[in-house]
């Protein structure tokens, strides 16, 4: 890629990520009864529309990290494993992906609380841009422990000093999850029993904060006696009364943890992936809510630009976008990573929602069987 185009891509990321606090990514993890693991998340940038794409990277593909000042001679790495990822602005900036060994890695915004080591040109051969860490992980490693060991030998840096920091979620096909946060230049790994991740503050704080919601339970609360009167819930789901509904990272973390944990375990990876989309619908961010009234900088369909759910066991990637909520899939087992060409493609071929017209026939409908009795309908509809 030419130097000028690199600067344009970096500038777009700084505008959308570093220069605003309009990022609200949310990640969840589901496990099916047949031991499939689903790593799912939203990607949210409200400041501007990103150039979103999927990238297919073969084995033996070499990459080199960008460095501050537009230099392109940072850490060089060659793919041991092929992978597929979703990227923003530049095919090298993969923010969520999975490799053929079943290891998943994803980047989440982490402003103010992370801090990398300052860039030092003496260490440029081991310096890696934060937006290329996902590509590095997917291309080189098959386990979380391998990543932990290798991180000791690199220096993660910002491409531009104006940019803020990020953190990462790493998931393997067994369902083990690790969160990587770099604070004061030190990489910190945290085991994540829930697999939930949002943004700042740091991961340990979010886990401690869950204790503030010890009262939340699935189902319906009450009835409860209050002196001479009885209190009853107005509707089902009152056990979650008090669950925060705003779009700040702490509130989304709590909401994701409880909605994920309260969901019904599905039989298969496919069913769990579809369930992940239903859960993450609760985290779609309407564009206007992140800015003062009338101050939204654009008119995108949503601040949630795309949502991905990856079945690590069956190596299936599913996604939809803000333009088209029809779910698309990428079957990694159908890709020969030893021969496939390195390539990238837009997430949306056409930026429009797929709409299927319902056809109404002039002919009488076919006999669909006996009509339900009034008692049967009443039992199902009115006696809930």
What is the structure about, briefly put?
The protein is of the alpha+beta class and 384 residues long. It has helices at residues 3-18, 133-140, 144-151, 203-209, 249-261, 269-280, 374-381, and strands at 27-31, 37-44, 52-57, 62-64, 76-78, 83-88, 94-99, 104-109, 127-129, 155-157, 166-171, 177-183, 186-191, 224-226, 229-231, 304-311, 316-321, 328-331, 343-346. Residues 1-7 have low confidence and may be disordered.
- Largest sheet composition: 8 strands, antiparallel
What would the average pLDDT be, to the nearest integer?
91
Q: Given the C-alpha coordinates, what overall shape results?
A: globular
The spatial strand order of the largest sheet comes to 13-12-11-8-7-6-3-19
Low-confidence spans: 1-7
- Please tell me how large the radius of gyration is: 23 Å
- CATH class division: Alpha Beta
How many E strands? 19
User: What is the element string, with H for helices and E for strands?
Assistant: HEEEEEEEEEHHEEEEHEEHHEEEEH
Q: The CATH topology, please? A: Penicillin V Acylase, Chain A
Domain count, please report it. 1
Question: What is the first-to-last residue Cα distance?
Answer: 61 Å
How much strand content do the residues show?
A: 25-35%
CATH architect. name: 4-Layer Sandwich
Oligomer: single chain
Helix coverage percent = 10-25%
What class do helices, strands and sheet pairing give? alpha+beta
Continuous helix count: 7
CATH level 4 superfamily: Penicillin V Acylase, Chain A
